[in-house]
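Example 147, ligand zinc ion.
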Amino acid sequence: MAPKHLPANTALQAAALLAATGARLTRARIEVLAALLRADEALTHHEVERRLRRGQDVDRVTLYRVLEWLTEQGLVHKVSGEDRIWRFSAAGHRPARGSGHAHFECSSCGKVICLDQTRLPSIPLPAGYRRRDVEVMIKGSCDQCAA
Ligand SMILES: [Zn+2]
Ligand SMILES: [Zn+2]
């Protein structure tokens, strides 16, 4: 068995995750999810587009739709960096609700990664307040920029 973070075949893994939703399997859904599973950082639309396998190009409108759909399905989550551009990640996904992990953004290269090994503590709110989202972004330098 390959370790979970080194999938032997991300297209197969993507197909299995999609099949579990009961939704229709399309080539675009499989390719986009596979590209996110292969990535070790959260990717913008543009970065996903560039990382699709050669010959597996997906037009831009389809790509936007597929990314939103994957997010709605809880297979992917999105996070925005300081530039307010959405980045998508397939790491640490779990069915919506309390998406529970922090992110790290490199202030030099703009890379955003999921810190999904650690769950966020639950922070109590004043009486009557309701939580909608929790976003924790740690900023600093990534290993490459700090070197
Ligand atoms: Zn960096
Ligand atoms: Zn994340």
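Summary: The longest strand covers residues 102-106.
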